[in-house]
Amino acid sequence: MRLGSKSDTKTTGFPVLDGQELTDKDGFKATLLLRKHMNVLHAVIRPTPGQDREHSSRERVLHQKVAAREALHEAASRQGIHFPSLDRDEHGAPLPVRGRYWSITHTAEYVAGAAAVWPLGIDIERLRTPSAEVIAEAASPGEIDMVRKLFEVCEVEAFTRIWSAKEALLKLSGEGLAGLSKCTIGSTNLTDTRPGLWIRHDRMEHFVHQMLRDDHIASVTCDQVQQVQWDWHGHLVGARGTR
Ligand SMILES: CC(C)(COP(=O)(O)OP(=O)(O)OC[C@H]1O[C@@H](n2cnc3c(N)ncnc32)[C@H](O)[C@@H]1OP(=O)(O)O)[C@@H](O)C(=O)NCCC(=O)NCCS
């Protein structure tokens, strides 16, 4: 079964609010409203501050982490979600807060965050040619060729799309890069006009929504969400097109 398809979302229960599923008429209406609200996922992407060479590398990473969390809070508030604190497990993976999930990503150029009442993953990657070892670990020649043809793009963009999509999915699953070998490109459905890739993982297929901007690929995945609302503030200089 493909997660994220319309038929799949039909079987998804209503969100549980503060540990209690609402059952009375008003509660039912409120739940429907919240569910409608939640069916669009807001992904907030911002330029990363404090990345000048005058800052130490430790300071630069700290700025990335803080800015990613600010982007996350902005995205969360658009979903009607508030996180009083953001805790992680012993491996650094985000812990859900009362049934609300969060995911962040940070690079020297951009930070991003998204939140939902379902597990999700977000990633952002700059278009680049990695080493042959990294390519071999992350994508097969067949996968790169398939994505190159699907998007009519060069190998570098095809690889970055695959890499970013798999990272986003491995954040959703919580495995991180340890699960990389479990991910392959799923079936390419030409009738699916949404920009993104299907990734197969543990015999399930998940749709990863993607956007290209300013030489970066952003990827976000959440099985119960059909649509992503990208809020991407770019760098003003040298920004390229959007797809
Ligand atoms: C999770 C992982 C895919 C992140 O990718 P990345 O490109 O390095 O970093 P990103 O900026 O995209 O994402 C970082 C965020 O992912 C989140 N994250 C970390 N581990 C995660 C996991 N297992 N599942 C979901 N999210 C995770 C964290 O919130 C982290 O930000 P923070 O440290 O500021 O809290 C990758 O680092 C990983 O697999 N880490 C697991 C630990 C590991 O294998 N370390 C290497 C040992 S040699």
List the helices and strands and how they pair.
Blueprint: H1 6-10, H2 25-38, E1 40-47, H3 57-78, E2 101-106, E3 110-116, E4 121-126, H4 132-138, H5 141-151, H6 155-173, E5 183-185, E6 196-201, E7 204-213, E8 216-221, E9 227-232
Helix pairs in contact: 5-6
Bound molecules: coenzyme A.
Q: Which ions, cofactors or small ligands are bound in this entry?
A: coenzyme A
Order of helices and strands: HHEHEEEHHHEEEEE
| Major sheet attributes | 5 strands, antiparallel
Briefly note the structural class of the backbone. alpha+beta
Strand order of the largest sheet: 4-8-7-6-5
Beta fraction of the residues?
15-25%
Predict the CATH topology: Ribosomal Protein L22, Chain A
Shape: globular
Number of domains: 1
Please state the CA-atom Rg, rounded to the nearest Å.
Answer: 18 Å
CATH superfamily: 4'-phosphopantetheinyl transferase domain
Description:
- 32% of the residues lie in helices and 24% in strands.
- The chain has a single domain (23-232), classed as Alpha-Beta Complex (Ribosomal Protein L22, Chain A), CATH 3.90.470.20.
- With 243 residues, it is α+β, with helices and mostly antiparallel strands.
- Strands 4-8-7-6-5 form a 5-stranded antiparallel sheet, covered by helices on one side.
- The two termini are 28 Å apart.
- Helix 5 packs across helix 6 (155-173).
- Residues 1-20 have low confidence and may be disordered.
- The structure holds coenzyme A (COA).
- Coenzyme A is lined by residues 65, 88, 91-94, 104-106, 123, 167, 170-171, 174-178.
